[in-house]
Amino acid sequence: MQLIESIKLATDSIWAHKLRSFLTLLGVIFGVATVIVVVSLIEGFNKYVDEKIANIGTNAFSVQKFSIDDFASLEAYDNAQRRNKDVTLEDMTALRERGGVIKEVGVQEQDMCEVRFGGDVLFGVSLLAISSNMVDIQNKDMAEGRPFTQGEENGFRPVCFIGTDIADRFFPTKSPLGEKIKIDGRPFEIVGVAESTGSVFGQSRDKFISIPITTFMNIYGSRRSYQLFVVSTSQATYDDAIDEARVVMRTRRKLSPNEDDNFGIITPSAVNNLREKIFGTIQVAAIGVTSIALVVGGIVIMNIMLVSVTERTKEIGLRKSLGARRRDIIEQFLAESIALALTGGALGVAIAYALSTLVSTLSPIPTALPLTAVAAALFVSGSVGLVAGVYPAWRASRLDPIVALRSE
Fold first, then answer.
1. Parallel, antiparallel, or unpaired for β 208-212 and 159-162?
2. Burial 241-279 (b: 16+ CB within 10 A, else e)
3. Which of 164, 172, 129 is nearest to 144 (CA)?
4. Helix (H, G, I), strand (E, B), or coil: what is residue 1?
5. In 312-325, which ranges are continuous DSSP H helix?
């Protein structure tokens, strides 16, 4: 019997018992759909972290008071709080003077503020105090106007550029350029509006105001720890720049070779490693638990195929009496089992895609459905059908044609 003929017979048999076939597929559909939804949530989260959290800048890393490991537990954070020194602007100057593979160094400090324009006031606005080169380091684009200049930074000027949330709130019908807003009661001139960068887990990233770091220090004081952003000369010198920055910081803090760093160097890979450390086990466990439904679906398929063998005993006997070989019978029932599982897998993928789209549309939870996951789901569901159909197919092929023809 040709393989194509086996597939045709399997399709006809499935179509002849539509309701039973659908009920048989429910286990596979549910199993594939749940696994794909979990994978899409995991992939969406990973992509989100890569794009919006771990993306420090091109060939950039940050130097700050705490390392990634300091956030692993409350005890580690408390120890680091007592041990680590503040990162200062003098550290920034030392890194800049190092030169070599270190191309550029910027600084950022963050606080919360109250913003007022006329009689309207907005609370809980993120105040970003940055050096003028941070716009280039973090690849920020302007939707309107410009960022502040090095001259304005050096002159302690009260200028700012704002996020789109601030522009939409205070200036819905006109350009904010040249307008003056009050930040914690002090007037600042708006020179630009940054491009929208979206949100992180439902929290807007466009509700901010950026001012020169020098102006910030004049108003709020300089006794604090800053976050420095260091850029290497190229991707090839990235690791060397990290080593250079570590040498500079350790030298300034007079650390001996056997002492641990009392500062942190944060890279995108370090953020991703922390993500893997925290969520890696959860991902494996979630996929493992949801895969149980696929096993249940396979057992259901095997059970139905055994029933099908019993129901079609005469048909099997007739085929064998007309010359069908054991191999032909096995192919027929395996084709039917695999077709059932693949159909369930395809329906499960379609349902998972719809659910993932719905989740990402109606909530801040990101999702992503890679083609590799779809292909893996169909392969696994087909494999489940193959495994589930082996015993029923073997049992059907072993039937004696004379006994089968006599059965009622």
1. antiparallel
2. bbebbeebbbeeeeeeeeeeebbbbbbbebbbebbeeee
3. 164
4. coil
5. 313-321
Burial class for 383, CB neighbours closer than 10 Å (0-12, 13-18, 19+): middle
CA–CA dist 179, 172 (Å, integer): 13
DSSP sequence for 86-98? PP-HHHHHHHHHH
Q: What are phi and psi of 204, to 5 degrees?
A: -65, 140
Give the least confident one: 15-24, 157-166, 170-179: 15-24
User: What number is the average pLDDT over the span 205-232?
Assistant: 91
pLDDT tens digits, 36-91: 777 777 777 777 666 555 456 678 888 888 877 766 666 777 777 778 888 899 99
Q: Name the nearest CA neighbour of 36 among 369, 300, 303, 390.
A: 369
State pLDDT tens for residues 225-280.
899 999 999 889 988 999 999 999 999 988 888 888 888 888 877 776 766 666 66
Q: 25, exposed or middle or buried, with CB in 10 Å at 0-12, 13-18, 19+?
A: buried
Which phi and psi angles does 344 have, rounded to 5°? -60, -40
* b/e 29-68 (16+ beta carbons within 10 angstroms → b): bbbbbbbbbbbbbbbbbbebbeeeebebbebbbbbbbbbb
Q: Give the tens place of pLDDT for each residue, 88-131.
A: 999 999 999 887 899 999 999 999 999 999 889 999 899 999 99
**Which of helix, strand or coil describes residue 99?**
coil
Closest-CA residue to 25 (of 301, 293, 352): 301
pLDDT value for 1: 45
> And the tokens for 29?
């559909």
Q: Are 352 and 369 in contact (CB under 8 A)?
A: yes
Residue 228, Cβ neighbours under 10 Å: how many? 24
The residue among 107, 194, 195, 211 whose CA lies nearest residue 152 is 211
Nearest to 148 by CA among 138, 161, 167: 161
* Helices then strands, each counted (H, E), the chain: 14, 12
The model carries a pTM of 0.64
Which DSSP category does 131 fall into? -
Residue 195 contacts residue 206 (beta carbons within 8 Å): no
Please provide the size of the chain in residues: 408
